[in-house]
């Protein structure tokens, strides 16, 4: 069962939810940027400068969180997002390497 913040445990992460979350290029961009940063890096959702409305940004981060790809923590009036690198590598070995190797569309 997901915790009170909507984060599933590693055992609850499913391939279908992860692939559905990664189907969107903006969500893959978020994961790619977090995966390229040092382990443990957390960023505000706004720092990704996604070219969509605030409501759509919220939707994208909720989708990533509910799939188990990121962990979000409230910090004052913003939310910090960090990649769940260890859980992803344990459940889906090599997935992050594939996402980071992808050449983003122009």
UniProtKB/TrEMBL annotation:
InterPro entries: ArsR-like_HTH, HTH_ArsR_DNA-bd_dom, HTH_MetalResp_TranReg, WH-like_DNA-bd_sf, WH_DNA-bd_sf. Residues 7-103 form the HTH arsR-type domain. Keywords: DNA-binding, Transcription, Transcription regulation. The keyword Lipid biosynthesis does not apply. Pfam families: HTH_20. This is Helix-turn-helix transcriptional regulator. It comes from Yinghuangia aomiensis.
